Amino acid sequence: MFPPVPSLVPVITPVTPTVAAVTKIAISRVRLDDSWGAHLERRLSAAIQKWVALVVEDPLSFDVGRRCAAFVGNDEAISQGLLHTFSGKSAGTLHSRAGPLIRFVAWAKARQRKPLPFSEALLYDFLLESESTCAPSFGKALMSALAFCKFVLGVENVSDVLSSGRFGGLARSMFLNKRKRRQKPPLTVDMVKALERLVISEREGDIDRLCAGFFLVCVFLRARYSDAQGLKNLAIDEPEGFAGRLTGYFQGEASRTKTSFSLERKTALLPMVGPLFGLTAVPWFKTWLGLREDMGIPEGEDFPLLPSRGLEGGWAPVPPSATVAAAWLRGILISRGFPEARKLGTHSCKCTCLSWLSKHGVDPLHRRVLGYHKAPQDEMMHVYGRDNVSPALRSLEAVIQDIRQGLFLPDVTRSGYFPTQPQREPGPEFVEEPSESEVSLDEEDNVQDLRAEEAAADQVVPPWAELVVQDPDALVYVRHITSRKLHRLADESGNRLKCGKACTRKFERLSEKPRFMADMGSRITRRMGRVFVTQPDRLGYALTGPRGEV
After folding, report:
1. Nearest of 133, 130, 199, 197 to residue 170 by alpha carbon
2. Fewest CB within 10 angstroms: 34, 298, 357, 440, which?
3. Largest Cα–Cα distance of the chain, in whole Å?
4. Are residues 166 and 238 in the same domain?
5. Which residues does the annotated region (Disordered) include (predicted)?
6. Total structural domains within the chain
7. Among residues 175, 209, 236, which one ends one of the domains?
């Protein structure tokens, strides 16, 4: 027997080998008594602050400003109006729409120009000057932000900008310089088998087994990372009578999904169903449920399916970032002999089964249903039908059965998919269109624009902090290069952060304290045995409660 493979997922214990020791990935320090909902509320509060600053520049340009004209100078009235205007919008969407506009306002003020009402000539000059310094997608993001202002905030003079041929053409020209899109590859058959065997192996570390099971849930439910984190009410559906050894399904209900773009879908749970047995015919899902129970992982509306670990142990009701989760997936697979896993991301899990279906030639309708999409002409069928996913699930089971028996080899070249059958053509590729209704938690690389947006927010948005900090001007602040989370140094050496992390090359030191302090990494202040956390008020204006530390 071979010795067990050391755990490659971060565990906060002093004796067990961890991913942090092997791949230099440190788990986030999180507040154990802070709910996932509270985390999202703070992000929403920070987004509202940005939009208040934009509206205050010229209230009469915005519908909410015109309706609050009687409350001139009362930012709280505007904040409340924006809170209701943005009802149903995700905090990530609000941040992404506000960012380009804040950069434009800061640019105009630096040149003693009046940014609002919006002027096509001024916006064109701004985009022309920014062309060489911003990301290629910035022009498209700016146009999306302006369209958001028109259709959501009732800004009347935006139509002239959006219809401008030169402005739109410049945005398109910039976008054409974007790096060619390379979709994340799916997991290979051998990778999926390795994850299934890992989950049921008691010789392996529990944290690795827990993470492997979560990634398998994403694979067989065809779920995004963000959607799977919101899964509730996990259950197993097995036939009462004998129907074969490898029959049955597991299912759950997703409370937060990226494709929930209508009010009806935002207020409904999305049922997700997958085959109970995978490629190795082992009971990985049942084992994983038992492992979760043994490890004491809580369940509930505000608890993610894969939680973070706390600094002192225990489970925190905040999910790891998609960047961290993708590193866990790669670390687990690379350590088990899959160097090609370096190209994987969290979205690789969702596309795995869908790519098998495409290569096998399964009907596009079934693939669309299994990807949780529907065509407009299928609306009636879904409204009046019940268990519409059953035919598509049987198609997926047939494909998995062919893979088990070696009749279908999805990881070889196109000519070798079906080694024992005459040449068959794979089905047309199903490309999943991105939805902007809910921001995905998948990994992104837009550090260049984020730096510029943070600098602009410091100039445009009034001073605001997510947490109250003692003597903030005496501290030295750093940001994580990728996540952009704000931290403070623990001492003059600059080698360690206040939260306990090492200050590595992944952090950049700030020359001065930011005025707009959102997305702050935090360390709980403990007093008299109690855990204190500062919370923003409902509108995100006042911070109350005991002081926290960044």
Report:
1. 130
2. 298
3. 78
4. no
5. 415-437
6. 3
7. 175
167: Cβ contacts below 8 Å, ≥ 6 apart: 120, 123, 124, 127, 143, 161
Residues 166 and 211 in one domain: no
Distance CA 427, CA 410 (A): 13
Angle of the 284-294 helix axis to the 206-220 helix axis, nearest 10: 130
For residues 92 and 198, state if they share a domain. no
Q: Among 147, 175, 203, where does a domain finish?
A: 175
Residue 307: the pLDDT is: 87
**Structural domain boundaries enclosing 478:** 464-544
Task: Please determine, for residue 90, whether its predicted confidence score (pLDDT) is greater than 90.
Answer: no
**Beta strands 270-275 and 249-254: pairing type?**
antiparallel
pTM comes to 0.70
Report yes or no on 240 lying in a domain: yes
Can you tell me the distance from the alpha carbon of 117 to that of 115, in angstroms, rounded to the nearest whole number?
6
Look up residue 476 and give its two tokens. Answer: 């030295």
Return d(Cα 456, Cα 87) in angstroms, integer. 26
Asked if pLDDT for residue 19 goes beyond 70, the answer is no
- Judge whether 57 and 115 are in contact, CB under 8 Å: yes
**58 and 204 fall within a common domain:** no
Q: Is the dihedral of CA 47, 51, 56, 60 positive or negative?
A: negative
pLDDT at 489: 80
The two tokens of residue 477 are: 């602040």
pLDDT above 60 for 527: no
> According to the model, what pLDDT value does residue 331 have?
94
Q: Is residue 549 one of the residues assigned to a domain?
A: no
How many C-beta atoms lie closer than 10 Å to residue 6's C-beta? Answer: 15
232 three-class SS: strand
Are 169 and 188 within one domain?
A: no
pLDDT at 170: 95
**Are 217 and 305 in contact, with CB atoms under 8 Å apart?**
yes
β-pairing, 516-517 with 464-465? parallel
pLDDT one-digit tens code per residue, 444-492: 446 677 788 888 888 888 888 876 666 655 578 888 877 777 878 877 6
User: Tokens 């931290």 identify what position?
Assistant: 487
Q: Say if residue 366 is in the same domain as residue 301.
A: yes
Q: Domain containing 387 — which CATH number?
A: 1.10.443.10
Beta bridge partners of 271: 253
Cα 86 to its chain centre, rounded Å, is 20
Q: Are residues 150 and 217 in the same domain?
A: no
DSSP string, 12-50: --SSS--HHHHH-PPPPP--TT--HHHHHHHHHHHHHHH
Mean pLDDT calculated for residue range 174-190: 88
pLDDT given at position 383: 60
Q: What is the DSSP letter of 104?
A: H
